[in-house]
Design a protein that fits this description.
The protein is an all-alpha fold. It is built from 9 helices and no strands. The protein folds into 2 domains: 47 residues, no CATH class; 73 residues, no CATH class. Helix 4 packs across helix 9. The chain is elongated and about 110 Å long.
Length: 166
Amino acid sequence: MNRFAIAVFASAIATAILPAMVDAQTYNQPAASASNVPPGEHGHHLRRHHPDPTPAVAAPEPTPMTRKERREERHEERHEEREHRKESGEVHSGSLLKNFDTFLDTHPSIESDLRANPQLANNPNYIKSHPDFQTFLREHPYVKQSLQENPAGTVKRETRYDKKHD
């Protein structure tokens, strides 16, 4: 063998065995020899200390719902929501609007203020300066909640209700 062949052979051994020896010393394991390390398997000891992150048993894939099943599920959710409202005493939007409309019909100044600026329904100074409105909101928490969440939309719905029912 000439010197070039020996250098190539020594380089091949160094790249195949030395990293395994260094890694083995780092993890206090016996060094792997070239005979028991399959090609491409350097670092195999890491797999022993760091298991495969994929679970041993994969979760089953969710089965896609048919349109009919989704429709039935939505129907059931709406039914449960209506039952919950009945049990908790919550009123539906029709009675909410009716109560609000009745109050505003008897308080025209508040009605014109809210139609001009629906945000007044959430203004503590405005509410304090109108004790009847304050009492109404306390006695009708669902109207109050609706006004807090969407004052302009609530006033707009009441206006449509007023035009339709008066």
